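Write out structure tokens for Polysaccharide lyase-like protein.
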Amino acid sequence: MIAAGIVAVLVGLLAPGPALASSPTPPGGDGLIWRADDGGDMLGSFQRNEYNEQDGAPREVSSPSGHGQALEFSLQGGDQRSELLPRVPDGREGDVYYYGYRGRLADDFPVDAQRFQIIMQWHHYGDEGSPPVAIAVQDGRLMITGGDNDRNEAYQQAIAPIRPGDEIDIIVRIVFSRDPEKGTVDVWSGGRRTVTAFHPPDGTLYDDGDYMKVGLYRSEDLSDPASLTLDDVAVGRTRQAVDAAMVDQGASSAQGTPDAGTEESTGSDSSLRTGLAVGTLALIGAVVAVVAVVRRRQRL
């Protein structure tokens, strides 16, 4: 009977089963670096200065999608800049970060404009020239863009078609490097991977680092007004962390990522089960020894 009980215990411990319960963790877990506060003082989540708001300060409004607060950025024709700086680390050589963005274009947003309209950018430390990487609305497309054919080669890479009033729901992965062979950009749009390992012609860094800005930055040549709302923005070291932190996980994707292997399978549950089994074996061994001694004494 004792032997049968021991076998039953071992089978129960070593057989595969559901994951062991873990302590609850906040959305994003340890991989999340920063997320804008959409439930209170959303503007307070960002660094602000007069230069970035020279043509208009963003306003905190109720989210058009019903998710707490949002930020509204508006520019009139001829205006150029209304931007904020997320409180996040700069991108430096070898860094890999994921950036989540969720917003909505106004119903009259001039999506077919022939000039740049940047909604998110990673600008080099130098004051002159266009950024190495930016997300823009131009020619009826949401796109990655950068460079200016003056100091660095200009480029465009389509992400998805876009229309006035559309939601923008993206996660951007950037490998920061001055080496064009190493610097890459990936984009998930609306839960679907639409850009994979794109290499900007002069890399994703033009000098020692890139700092992030969000809002609206557009060509002064544009005469039509433009407005958009920003619902959510988050930054992390993994796509899963950023996705979990975003409003109702709107930018989720079931497709694979370059880091999927390290994120999706840590082996922690099976290791814990194995550890428990080893400890239990030791305990059972001690019990068996005691039983043997007791039986031996009973025979005497």
